[in-house]
Amino acid sequence: MNEADLIPLFPLRSVVFPGGRLSLQIFEQRYIDLVSHCMRTDTGFGICLLLKGDEMVQPGSQQQVSRVGMYCKIVDWDKLPNGLLGITVEGLRKFTVMESWVGDNKLLMGSVRWEVEDFLGQSILPLSDDHDGLVDLLKDLMAHPLIEELGVSMDFSDQRQLGWRLAELLPIPVHQKQQLLEINDTTERLREIENLVVSMMQHNNS
User: Fold this and answer.
1) Same structural domain for residues 96 and 150?
2) Which of 80, 114, 124, 187 is paired with 25 by a 20 to 30 Å CA distance?
3) How open is the CA angle 89-90-96, to the nearest 5 degrees?
């Protein structure tokens, strides 16, 4: 990947982290064409949190997306019982959108800068005993049948992966997941996750 690249953007009300997987139903023609192109060329697209507008663009409406997103590639696909195309994507690398516009193909396009943190293949940051509680929590979350079905791999000795997976799987509002994605320091992300978990426990006990 170059320092700056042009990629198609897929606005969704979802946030993806490196190594995370997301299942999508594809029915708009522009996205069917995008998926076909990605599968032919072994390329991907950026998923950005949709801040304003609808996932399916209405005439006269506009979409506004977060500047920080995740470059994803298709790892599985199938025809769903309802006849739609179903795909599973996996997050690879975080980026920041420098500029975006709607192209001739009706896709939202973005000129993006690749971030130096949060991408697959980074060296492991060893966990300490202080993280045992978060590891146990993540194991419980990943035991859910729907999560197991996605086939997400996990190294429970890595701080980065611990932060990525908890940020995805915790039952928190999507804007908080986006805030966690935008943090570039793993230690800071885990500290913020711990604060969120404590706040959730206090709320449940009140």
Assistant:
1) no
2) 114
3) 105
Residues 63 and 104 in one domain: yes
Cα–Cα distance, 114 to 137 (Å, whole number)? 31
- What digits encode the pLDDT tens for the residues 43-90? 999 999 999 866 665 555 567 899 999 999 999 999 888 888 999 999
Answer whether residue 124 is part of any domain. no
pTM for this structure? 0.91
Tokens of 145: 């049948």
Q: What is the pLDDT of residue 55?
A: 60
Cβ–Cβ < 8 Å for 162, 17 = no
Q: What is the DSSP string of 137-148?
A: HHHHHHTSHHHH
The partner residues of 79 in beta bridges, in order of sequence, read 85
Number of domains in the chain: 2
- Interhelix angle for 186-205 vs 159-169, to 10°? 40
| Domain-embedded: residue 162 | yes
CA 132 to chain CA mean position, Å: 25
Q: Are residues 34 and 111 in the same domain?
A: yes
CB 89 within 8 A of CB 17: no
Same structural domain for residues 138 and 80?
Answer: no
